[in-house]
Amino acid sequence: MTKDWKTRTKLVHEGTRRSQYGEMAEAIFLTQGFVYPDAESAEARFIKAGEDEFIYARYGNPTTRMFEERIAALEGTEDAFATASGMAAVSGALTSMLRAGDHVVSSRALFGSCLYILEEVLTRYGVKVTFVDGADLDQWRAAVVPGTKAVFFESMSNPTLELIDITAVSEIAHAAGALVICDNVFATPVFSRAVEQGADVIVYSTTKHIDGQGRALGGVVCASREFIRKTLEPYMKHTGGSMSPFTAWMHLNGMATLDLRCRAMADAAKEIASALEGHEKLSRVIYPGLPSHRQHALAMAQMGSGGTLLAFDLKGGKEAAFRFMNALEIVKISNNLGDAKSIATHPATTTHQRLPQDQKDALGITPGLIRLSVGLEDAGDLTADLMQALSVA
Question: 381 lies in which domain range?
Answer without folding.
Answer: 259-392
